Structure formats: C-alpha cells, structure tokens
Amino acid sequence: MSVQEYLDKHLLSRRIEDAVNAAVRTKISDPVLFISNHMRKAVPSVITKVKARQILDSRGIPTVEVDLHTNKGMFRASSPSGVSSGMYEAIDLRDGEKGTYLGNGVNRAVNNINEKISVALVGMDPTLQSQIDQVMIDLDKTENKSELGANAILAVSIAACKAGAAEKEVPLHKHIADLSGQTSLLLPVPVFTLISGGKHAGNNLAIQEIMILPVGSKTFEEALQMGSETYHHLKAVITETYGAHGCNVGEDGGFTPNISSLRDGLDLVQKAIAKTGYNEKIKIAVGVSATEFCIGTKYDLDFKTPNKSGQNFKSGQDMIDMYKELCSDYPIVSIEDPFDKEDWEHVKYFSGLGLCQVVGDDLLMSNPKRIERAIQENACNALLLKVNQIGTVTEAIEVVKMAKDAQWGVVISQRSGETEDSFISDLSVGLASSQIKAGAPCRGERLAKYNQLLRIEEELGDQAVYISEKWRN
C-alpha cells in the first residue's frame, strides 16, 4: 500500500483537520502534543513488528522473549517452562544441539517468530486476540504446537494481549476479563510454596511441595503479609531443627530441609503457622505430583532415598488411607495430583470422598480433552492452569470456562522455569480464578507475580474484591 493509499484509506486528511479544530476549541497550551495524542486515538492501531530473542529463565535455561510493536508502542512477553513435559501438552521447541545450552537452546523457536509468525501477524488489530491466536495455530498445523513451538506461540500471544489492552486503554486484567466475558474481577488466594521436594529439590522428600493458603485474610495485601511472615518463621524453625543448610531453597523458592517424611514437613509448617499467631486463618495444601514416583500400579515414597527405594511400595488404596489420615490430622484443604496421571480409578474415588479440593495438574495438563474426561468422570474438582501447556491466551480462557462451568476451582500456576513476566497475575484477576500458585514469597521471578497483584489491588481501590474464605465457592 502506497502512502497516498494509506492516507485515503484512513481518511487522515479529515482526521488531521478534526484534530486541529479540537485543539483550537480547547485552547490547549501545547497544540502539537494535543494533535499528536488525538491522532494516535483516531487511527486504529495495528501490529507493525514482532521481534523475538533467546533469554534465560529462572533455572538458567533458555526461553523465548518477544517484543511486539504497534502504533501505541512496544509490548514484551516471555514464555515459562517446566521440569517435565507430558504427551498431552503443547511442546516447547528446543534446538537439540548438545554443545549449546546442553541442547536446550530456543533459536529455532525464535527464528519461527521472526521469519514466519511476524509476517503473518503484521497489520492485524491487537485487540482481536482470538484471531491472532488462530492465525498462529493454523500456521503451526500440529495438535501440540510442535512445528512452531508452544514457547514461540505463547510468548507472542501474551505480548499481543498486552498490546490489545493498551489499544483499548484499559488495564491488562480488564482486557482479559473482556475477552473472557467475565464481569467481576477477583483477587485470588495466593498458594505459597513453603517446602519443596520431588524434582524441584535435592532432598529426600518424594512429594513436590507443601504450601499454605491464607484464606482468613481480608485483602490480598494481608494475605501476602501472612505468607511472608510464615515463610520467615519457617526458616527459623528449620534452622533450629536441621541447621542453616536446611534453609537452602528449591527451584520455586521453597525450603529444602533434608526430610523424607511428609509428616515431618507438615509438622514444620504447623510450627511456623503457630508462631505467626494466624492459626485458623492459614490452611495447608500439598502438591504430591504422584506420577513422578509411580512405578506400574505402586507408589514409591522413598524413590529419592537410594537405600530405601523399592522397599516400601504403597498401593492406590494405601495412598488413599494416608491422605485420609493427613486430612484428619492437619488443616489440609487441597491436594494436587494425589495419584498417577493415568490412575483414574483412585483419583475418582478419592475426589468422591469430599475431604478437600483435589487439583488436577499432570492428570489434566491443561488439555481440553483431558479436562472434559475429568469433568464427565468427576475425577477432580479443580484445574491447575499452566498457560505454556496449552499455548495461547484464547485457549487458556476456554479451558477456564470449561472448569468454571463444571463448578470447579481454578488455580493459575507458575512453572519451575519462570521469568520476571507477571502476566499470570493479570490473567488470574481477569478470569476471576480462585487461587494463584506462584511459588514462595521469595525470589524475584516469583515475587514479580505477587507484587503485581498488590498493584492491581491498589489500582482497583474500593472495587477490589479478595476472594478470601469463599475461595472454594
């Protein structure tokens, strides 16, 4: 399109005249600035450039970062990644060159953005999120986004979402709410990681994490205070019992005392909560990630202890009995992935007991087909959403709608490989999710999410609603 054709298409001569007349009427002191701002609003914004690069995530492993440009400015986003990936989730594209970043480089994904996705998206309206995402899905042509890479597609999708909010001149969480049809904005209950185990830590604890939910707080700000204070009291408790070396942290900031017993970890957390004085206001959650230690139909809770591994297998029924005892002895309100991702029989039975919230992570992998099956079979009652497992903002919105229609809880989750991008905070508020799991109240890439929620709560002012004790309603 020539310059003259562009001017004619957008009626710029008339718009400039209107801007000048408006400046004269308002008797503005700086008419040039006024006219410039007037024209920026008068001409619809489009994507003008998409540029990607390779950066490092919180584990020091490469990931994708994108700068998406429109007439309104530049909007940056990056893609997180996890320790494990499953056959049912969207696939990060890695270079596979062992001599560079141990094969974990993402230059192929970066090139796909710069050479293919950019060409397809330039000229598109950034407010049309679903169309942008569909263009990339069609360009990829695979079910798991393995051609272009989910890490490439997601980073662009998030950057476009930020650009769309700027074009509409609304906060990002409000734009997401508009995209999803959500009429209310809610501040979620933070699910803080306090003790890490499993693949996230080098101790002997088989289960992945012990977490707390400050459900008795009245605001998100108060919830963050409760989480931080409990975290620091726990540090003192662990130091007293195991020494300072027990306060090393895992990939998501949780402490990693050298314990092998889940009860030992729960006792430590209980002592820390007691020291805060919050008591009933703080509940406990357990992230089991049982797939990691399932061998056939048995569960090896000693799989990280070489001299014990294989000697103390538990059946699915044994695990159910253990969970029942734990829920009776501790204020546990949520258990994540209590069984292997293919152990539908036991997870259905356990969910039916109604002892606590049962969260599907590896069970679901944010995959619509898995979620649909779990809804039909009553296999769990909460979705753990990891946006990189599904690959686009639009698809994330759709699976959250599925979960909410089923009266499930929704937990917006971090990954072990995070960046300083705080997008999931706005996503959680915009989708009115009940919980957000962003790791410990420690480490910059985790605090970026919690601090953004503080800003959102402040910005909403009197309209800010913290979900508090209604987190399961």
What does this structure look like?
- By secondary structure, the chain is of the alpha/beta class.
- Helices cover 43% and strands 15% of the residues.
- Strands 4-5-6-10-11-12-13-14 form an eight-stranded mixed β-barrel, surrounded by seven helices.
- Helix 4 (107-121) packs across helix 5.
Number of helices: 16
Secondary structure: helix percent? 40-55%
For the biggest β-sheet, the strand order reads: 4-5-6-10-11-12-13-14
Helix and strand sequence: HHHEEEHHHHEEHHEEEEHEHEHEHHEHEH
- Extract low-pLDDT stretches: none
Strand content: 15-25%
The radius of gyration is 24 Å
Overall 3D shape: globular
Give the termini separation: 54 Å
Instruction: Report mean pLDDT, rounded to a whole number.
Output: 92
Q: Strand tally, please? A: 14
Which class best fits the helix and strand makeup? alpha/beta
> For the report, how would you describe the main beta sheet?
8 strands, mixed, barrel
Pathway: Carbohydrate degradation; glycolysis; pyruvate from D-glyceraldehyde 3-phosphate: step 4/5
Family: Belongs to the enolase family.
Keywords: Glycolysis, Lyase, Magnesium, Metal-binding
Pfam family, one: Enolase_N
List keywords for this structure.
single chain; 473 residues; alpha/beta; eight-stranded mixed barrel; three-stranded antiparallel beta sheet; 43% helix
List the helices and strands and how they pair.
Blueprint: H1 3-9, H2 12-26, H3 31-42, E1 47-56, E2 62-70, E3 73-78, H4 107-121, H5 129-140, H6 150-168, H7 172-180, E4 189-196, E5 209-213, H8 220-242, H9 262-276, E6 283-287, E7 294-295, E8 298-300, E9 313-314, H10 316-329, E10 332-336, H11 344-352, E11 357-360, H12 368-377, E12 382-385, H13 387-390, H14 393-405, E13 409-413, H15 423-430, E14 435-439, H16 444-460
Parallel strand pairs: 4-14, 6-10, 10-11, 11-12, 12-13, 13-14
Antiparallel strand pairs: 1-2, 2-3, 4-5, 5-6, 7-8, 8-9
